[in-house]
Amino acid sequence: MNILLFLIPVSMLGLGLALWAFIWAVKRGQFEDMDTPALDILREDEHDRPVVDSRASRLDPPGTGTAPTVPTPPANENAHLNAPKPDRND
Questions:
Q1: What is the pTM of this model?
Q2: Sequence spans of domains, the chain
Q3: SS3 labels along the chain
């Protein structure tokens, strides 16, 4: 029975904290636009575009005429599939 003297104030404090967090989120506009985040998944991502090395443009002095490099994929991604298999007849 003595535990109730501890649990009731702790639960009231937790309730107050949750209420404060909800009011804070409403005032900050967290619940203003509920449709756009759901539609963002359908838009094209920026990471689908070619990757440009940003370090190259920082290191080159302006006016040198060098363009940032774009990484190229390996010549044959499936080369490991065509490799000869080791002979297991020892």
A1: 0.41
A2: 1-29
A3: CCCHHHHHHHHHHHHHHHHHHHHHHHHCCCCCCCCHHHHHCCCCCHHHCCCCCHHHHHHCCCCCCCCCCCCCCCCCCCHHHHCCCCCCCC
Quote the tokens at residue 72: 């190229």
Asked if 73 and 84 count as a contact pair (C-beta separation under 8 A), the reply is no
Per-residue pLDDT tens listing for the chain (90 residues):
889 999 999 999 999 999 999 999 999 998 888 888 788 778 776 665 555 555 655 555 555 555 556 666 666 666 566 666 666 665
Nearest to 50 by CA among 20, 28, 72: 72
